[in-house]
Amino acid sequence: xxxxxxxxxxxxxxxxxxxxxxxxxxxxxxxxxxxxxxxxxxxxxxxxxxxxxxxxxxxxxxxxxxxxxxxxxxxxxxxxxxxxxxxxxxxxxxxxxxxxxxxxxxxxxxxxxxxxxxxxxxxxxxxxxxxxxxxxxxxxxxxxxxxxxxxxxxxxxxxxxxxxxxxxxxxxxxxxxxxxxxx
Length: 183
Fold this sequence. Notes:
- The structure is a single chain.
- This protein is mainly β.
- The protein has one domain (about 5-180).
- It has two helices and 13 strands.
- The chain has helices at about 50-55, 85-95, and strands at about 5-15, 20-25, 35, 45, 60-65, 65-70, 75-80, 100-110, 115-120, 130-135, 150-160, 165-170, 175-180.
- The strands form three sheets. It has a six-stranded antiparallel beta sheet with strand order 6-7-1-13-8-11. A five-stranded mixed beta sheet has the order 5-2-12-9-10, with no helix packed on it.
- The mean pLDDT is about 90.
């Protein structure tokens, strides 16, 4: 197995008028869904939140996926930074090839994004799990050189089939995630 260090990045645009809670890693929750009213218009996607809500996490709005993730509203979109590798390709890869992200860089078009936190938990339907919180404000300083970016070194983010991770994206914001030093 090749354990070289790699990177992956994606951008979330929330053009909606309200904040949205987005699952970045769905763990083992089934998120495959179908949308569309007519047989010829059916679309298969990987951002269904039904099972996540049924587990009690009903504050979740959407699941990270390629393209528009809020249906016909088309106000929340996700895009991989490297067009050669889709978000779904990345998510499927880490489910079968567990990794750890050592560095997380987050860029935002407004510093209010750094008032949010990333919530991580081990997706375990056979027993309770506790949440780990990464408050983004901890990594932001008004005196830093680049005010639109924070870097979380030694992040130790699990990238695997059991990692369930989400964040709130404020209304009208664009946030870019760089998962660096993946090994």
